[in-house]
Amino acid sequence: MSLKLYNTMSRSLEEFHPVANNHVRMYTCGPTVYDHAHIGNFRAYMFEDLLRRYLKYCGYEVTHVMNLTDVDDKTIRACIAEDLPLKEYTSTYIKAFFEDLDRLGIERAEHYPAATDHIPEMIELIEKLQEKGFAYQSEDGSVYFSIGKFKDYGKLSHLDLSGMQSGARVAQDEYEKDNAADFALWKAWDEKDGDVAWDSPWGRGRPGWHIECSAMSMRYLGETFDIHMGGVDNMFPHHEDEIAQSECATGKMFAKYWLHCAHLIVDGKKMSKSLNNFYTLRDILDKGYSGREIRFVLISTHYRQPLNFTFEVLDSARASLARLDEFIRRLKELASENATPEDLPAWARKAEDGFKAGLDNDLNISGAFAAVFDMVTAGNRAMDSAEVTGDSARAILTLLHSWDSALGILEPPPDEADEETLRMVEMRQQARRNKDWGEADRLRDELAARGWVVKDTPEGPKLRRS
RNA sequence: GGCGCGGUAGCCAAGUGGUAAGGCAGGGGUCUGCAAAACCUCUAUUCAGCGGUUCGAAUCCGCUCCGCGCCUCCA
Predict the structure, then answer these.
(1) Please, which positions of strand B sit below 7 A from a protein CB?
(2) Both A130 and A256 in a single domain?
(3) Is the CB of A315 within 7 Å of strand B?
(4) Rounded to whole angstroms, how far apart are CA atoms A155 and A153?
(5) What is the pTM of this model?
């Protein structure tokens, strides 16, 4: 069994083999830090996190780079409107971005390079392209990449560019380009840029959008790396342009595998502020859902399928997680200190195979979750008939823990009760011993109002967060 | 117009030629003082529609309908 991934470049499923033996280098396009990221953005980061975690689960060493786009039209416009220096303006949203990642249990990448910290690398790369004749400077000082010089242009997105004309969507100030599809490597300063500008061989200005990813991926991952990811919308022109710049500059293949995730939609429609269905992570947390519940929803649809986000689905995620939590708590109450993999019951071994087979198949998360839930059912059944030993329970918990290194979702939240709550449980037990069912039920309702469910079991009452 | 993705039970979602995984919700039952949890059981003769290929199709082909995306800086 080995990992297969769908490579956008070949439009087919390919066996995954890193360029260097056991070391995977991956680059993912990160946020433009002009505002809070929305849940659609996090769908992409979540899929990247799943792959990152699964690669580690499979035993690979991973070096992951995610860029922070902290200079572009939007960040400049916003910082001028707020009358703040660019860095100061974007730092607020960079901080918020990392807080959001933490809430969702998204692992940190090894590097988060910001574009504005790598201007020299970008200038160097542009100079190289100019020396090799792939770039030209227009009269206003901007530098463009000439796509006509790169015969492979379009190989990723498979777009036929012959029909692409300078049209309504092409800004007026871009009339200086040789070809409508040529894109900016360096943008000459414009008064709309305020004081956001850097010196360069072509005069004051700022980098184009695409060049940062080429320059920074080369800086941290080398000229050729393994996996490049992003949302489908990045395929063209962004990734196509990265390929053009990078491969023309180095003469080498830029990235071996290209993975793109489909969009998230809300209630079957594209998320948009005008439809009032636009959500940041914070919006949903404010409605009382946990990061873990949101993670479950974002992770549980295969990344190449559009994900339809609804609150109904969030509620069902909550219920699914409760089932998992109950199973794990049951095992914990039973488990011994130590166990070996030999202690795994046959049904758990079967689940282990199903889990791996699912994720090996282009991160088929549904298959992996089916294995998880099949094991929950088999395990509950076995525990009901007292067929699970302490060692088996420990071995299953160890297995779940290793799965969770890939899923980031299985560990239940702690539910330590305060003294007052415990005192009420004891009072209720006393009432039950006296067969005072009215008082017992009253106390149960009171506990429920405080967010606790009491379960009467043969081993005594147990408390669960509701 | 070009390119691409998708339409599977009330909701979500696997399955890409061999006779419909899994989760949630719902009905019935076991257990329980009653519950909760758990377990058992039921819930798509059918996979948007219509044709075709095949011994056999949700899966392949064609057409139609519907949703979503990209086609110059939006994950």
Answers:
(1) 1-6, 10-15, 21-25, 32-40, 67-75
(2) yes
(3) yes
(4) 6
(5) 0.94
